[in-house]
Write a structure and sequence with these properties.
It holds the Pfam family Ras. InterPro entries: P-loop_NTPase, Small_GTP-bd, Small_GTPase. This is Small rab-like GTPase. Keywords: Nucleotide-binding. One of its GO terms (molecular function) is GTP binding. The protein is an alpha/beta fold. It has one domain: Rossmann fold (3-Layer(aba) Sandwich). The chain is 33% helix and 20% strand. It has eight helices and seven strands. Strands 1-3-4-2-5-6-7 form a seven-stranded mixed β-sheet, with helices on both faces. Helix 6 links the parallel strand 6 and strand 7. The protein binds guanosine-5'-triphosphate (GTP) and magnesium ion.
């Protein structure tokens, strides 16, 4: 199994205040979201990729934390990226539409030591599809460092839906850089070839201010 603990590049900044959120909503950066149950390891995976670090300490994400990052591509180009480290706790369910809004790729995380986090992938994925149909989605089985034997098991969720799947560990870095790099490539591809669906068109119009409060949209 390949391991990846290379640094992701420049140090990135994180924030979750309202002003940053507004700025990020309007930015032209790639938007990558991490989804999955509470304590699956979303925050730790981002920490591992962006900060090349891991502190085995649990502080559940409150609502969302946004990380600004500059992705240096192999060809030398620099692409601004925002990572949305979302909160898995149910009390934040009402925020989910903002997570999905204009996202270009998703990392769907479960914890190999807790079956329920695997079972719930279906719920996360269905909701994601409602808002971002066809968005590139990478499924990652996290915490394999706890017992590497788990990598011989098969987890069919991803194969059934034809999604890329990786065993990862935020703790020791296994496959983390590899997954993130593939996700960024897929996000860029999605941004350059956006879907032509109804929901995205309406959202784009709203963003441009072309729909006032009184207007109705004909379906
Ligand atoms: N052994 C091990 N523990 C991990 C790994 N990734 C995360 N953890 C631990 O799992 C706990 C939860 O990790 P977080 O990254 O905070 O989980 P989260 O998905 O962001 O959770 P929410 O913010 O509540 O949605 C922490 O105590 C981490 O140290 C891993 O790869 N291996
Ligand atoms: Mg978190």
């Amino acid at each position: 199994m390949a391991t990846g603990t290379d640094p992701a590049g420049d140090a990135s900044t994180s924030s979750n205040d309202g002003a940053t959120l507004e700025k990020v909503m309007k930015s032209n950066a790639l938007k990558v979201i991490l989804l999955g149950d509470a304590a699956a390891g979303k925050s730790k995976l981002i920490e591992r990729f962006l900060l090349e670090g891991y502190v085995p300490h649990r502080l559940s994400t409150y609502a969302v934390t946004i990380y600004n990052h500059v992705w240096k591509k192999a060809d030398g180009d620099e692409v601004p990226v925002v990572f949305w480290d979302t909160a898995g706790q149910e009390k934040f369910n009402k925020l989910h539409p903002s997570y999905y809004y204009q996202a270009h790729a998703c990392i769907l995380v479960f914890d190999v030591t807790r079956k329920l986090t695997y079972k719930n992938l279906d719920r996360w994925y269905k909701e994601l599809q409602e808002y971002c149909e066809g968005i590139p989605t990478f499924v990652v089985a996290n915490k394999i460092d706890i017992d590497y034997k788990v990598t011989s098991k098969s987890f069919n969720f991803a194969t059934k839906r034809n999604l890329p799947f990786f065993f990862v560990s935020a703790s020791d870095g296994t496959n983390v850089v590899k997954v993130f790099n593939q996700v960024l490539e897929a996000a860029l591809e999605r941004k350059e070839n956006p879907p032509d669906d109804y929901y995205s068109q309406v959202m784009d119009l709203l963003q441009e201010g072309e729909l006032s409060g009184k207007e109705t949209v004909q379906v």
